[in-house]
Every structure is written in C-alpha cells, then in structure tokens.
Amino acid sequence: MTKSSVSESIRVQDAEIAKVVLMPGDPLRAKHVAEHYLENPVCFNTVRNMLGFTGTYKGKQISVMGSGMGIPSMGLYATELFNQFDVDAIIRIGSTGALLDEVKMRDVVIAMAASTNSNYGAAFGMPGLLAPVADYGMLEQAVSAAKELGVSAKVGPVYTSDHFYYPTDVLNTKARELGHLCIEMETAGLYWTAAACHKKALSILTVSDHLYTGEALSAEDRQESFHEMMEVALETAWRCIK
Ligand code: HPA
Questions:
Q1: Which residues touch 26 (CB under 8 Å, ≥6 apart)?
Q2: Three-class SS of residue 105?
Q3: How far is the CA of 8 from the centre of ligand 1 (A)?
Q4: Around Cβ 99, how many Cβ atoms within 10 Å?
Q5: Which of 14, 94, 173, 200 is deepest in the core (most CB within 10 A)?
Q6: Do the beta carbons of residue 110 and residue 146 sit within 8 Å?
Q7: Residues with CB under 6 A from ligand 1
Q8: Is this structure's pTM higher than 0.85?
Q9: pLDDT by residue (tens digit) across 113-157?
Q10: Nearest CA to ligand 1 atom 9
Q11: Is 138:236 a contact under the CB 8 Å cutoff?
C-alpha cells in the first residue's frame, strides 16, 4: 500500500499493540474503555490525541484506540494498525441511528455488510464494487456471545454515510427501503481496509437514536446500552485471540 504522506499517525510509546483492537470513534471513549474494562491499561499513542491503550481482559491482551469520524479517518488508522503493527482483527464499537421499525433503541447491531455512498473503495481497483463485508468467523462469535450474554442483537446490513448532515431525506429513505438496519459513518471503510490488508474486521453498534421515531437516548440509557455492546465486543475479541 502506498502512503500519500511521509507522516505516521501512530507512534507507539511504552506499550505494544495487541492482535485485536477495539475502535470507538471518540478517543476519549477509548480512554474510558481502557480505564473501565481493561486491567493495567497503558497508553501507546497520543499523536493527534487519537489515544490508544493496551491492557488485559480475562488474561488476554486487548487494545482500544479511537478511529475518528468517517471513512477516511477509520481507513487511515486501520491501515496502519493492520500493516505496520501486525494487528489481526479490528472491532469497531460505535453508535448508530436506526432506520427500520424493528430496530429498537438500545439494540445492539452486528453489521454483516455495509452499503455506502463513499468512493473510498474505488482505490482498491476491483472492477465494479468491492463488497464491504464482515469477517464471518468474528460475526459468528459475536452472535453467539450476544446470545449467551442475553443481549438483544440484530444482524444485517448497515449503511455507512459520508454525510452526517445529508441535504435531503433521499439517503435515509432509500437505505431504509432497501433493508439497512441503521446508519453510521465508518463500517464500510473498516471492512474495505480489512479486505485490502487481508485481515479481519467486525462492527458492533449500539442504537443511540431512531431516524423515523425521533427517539434519542438519554445520557444514562446511552451508558447502559454502551455497556451491553462492550460486553459483546470484549467477548468477541477474547474469542478471536488464540
Ligand atoms: N447518521 C450517521 N451516523 C450516526 C447517526 C446518524 O443519524 N446516528 C448515530 N450515528
């Protein structure tokens, strides 16, 4: 893979990066996850405040690092983690807006595939479109972990948008009509990057708002549903590490 700039965005200090990395959009979320879910977390990256930490969960090393918002940011960090730091698998943990009626507030969504209006994938040179899809083994582990934990998880296609503020309602309407469970901004970029780097990826999301009922979670409910997503993500990460 060719770099378009000489600068690297991850400069490891004091700690290794684990084989599996959890990636919330917000770097302060990464800090929260490290401090509340991992044992002995050590910060490995502070470049551009995109904080990354490595700690242990049930005896296995797991890292957590912010991805930033949108496909270009996710694509950049995921590429460096896979290609320069020998990471095997990335699990996006993030929030999403529900599109379908059967997707409820606080549901966990496991993204099987991601349609998108982004042109980022064109760079990979596949005639037609390279399909942004989850790693099946990770998806299977996440589904069984959710069942065992009693977490209500929906599995299906999501929509990854380049726009948070799209100028018309045509995007949401089409994405809903064509069966996408929810909308967010990073998953297609992660899945494309994993395919291009011959690595594995999965997005596990939590529904923070519903675009057709107008509901939005309160801060406390957000925390609770975030916790359910985290349990599924940590269990999936743990099972992915040999
Ligand atoms: N659009 C894009 N990303 C999101 C949304 C949304 O409505 N809600 C949460 N993440």
A1: 66
A2: coil
A3: 29
A4: 24
A5: 94
A6: yes
A7: 95-97, 161, 164, 183-185, 208-209, 211
A8: yes
A9: 999 999 999 999 999 999 999 999 999 999 999 999 999 999 999
A10: 96
A11: yes
